[in-house]
Amino acid sequence: MLRRKIFNLALKSIRSMRTDGTVASSTQLMTKKFENDPQKAEHHPLTDTFGRHHTYLRISLTERCNLRCQYCMPEDGVKLTAKPHLLTTEEVIYLSELFVKVGVNKIRLTGGEPTVRKDLVNIIGALKQIPGLQEVTMTTNGLVLTRMLVALQRAGLDIINISLDTLKPSRYETMTRRRGWERVMAGIDLAVQLGYSPVKVNCVVMRGFNDDEICDFVELTKDRNLDIRFIEYMPFTGNKWNDKKMVPFDEMLKIIKSSYPHICALPNGPNDTSKAYHVPGFKGQVGFITSMSNHFCGTCNRLRITADGNLKVCLFGNSEISLRDAIRQRCSEDDLLAMIGAAVKRKKKQHAGMMNLSQMENRPMILIGG
Length: 370
Known about the structure:
By secondary structure, this protein is an alpha/beta fold. Helices cover 36% and strands 15% of the residues.
């Protein structure tokens, strides 16, 4: 209880440093103006020059992780940001409130591994109190879910994505450079038991490593309401990407059809990143995230904030602005929104393509947020 009071006082203090009632009300009036006048939508801070309106914010809570996955972290590790330069709990909540005020309705917590952050339950609880925020979701490696998921659900976690790239314990250890496959499987089972429906499972497919398990993952959806999401292998600094390792969507679907010829496509929402499919008679479904072979840039509604407080308007872009520095320099909400709006307006029509991406300097995935 004392910790909660201290947290509330700190959050109240950080809000008061940057805004008073006049600024807050001007932000709210501005948001209402854009909602009521579609012709002014192009000037909205979350609408880019191609008319894409961004309603989905991904926040990396930490750069630390208890695994060392090959496609995420370089073999020799990464230099982590010193704790004073990471966003505090109060700054995470403040930025979340600001983005929700101007139209974000979904927030995903990522890392690193978000469950290594000790204030995770408090952050989720605080996010659920933000008026207008419809969903709080999280991507996790699942290692500690059997200890934490009940508390996370009570705090208000709406949707969970669990990363799992193999159904073979020995391969898991090779991929992650750690043990723990059984704990992840137990975490998936617990999520199903607690009523998460569906439980989303993210699987990065790599040729010569786990592409022979694609149909085994599909089989998991037979008796359980799982959404297996096959992700094309993407290039990031230090993950030794090459195009020969990438298994494109068309090839994955062909493999599945060889065992499940009646698999059929499902309708997709306008901002869905996953192409959804279902095997008739199965409880769950599968999907394909085709960032490399068939990008979905034209309908992208996502923004990212890194653990050190930088706004990235594109996962594959290397342009960033520091919201952390602006907050700590006591910028007003209007100034912050102007910065955010300018960054969003610089968002490109699409990413550069897989060969160009493989040569571009970008953060390792662990420093961006999955």
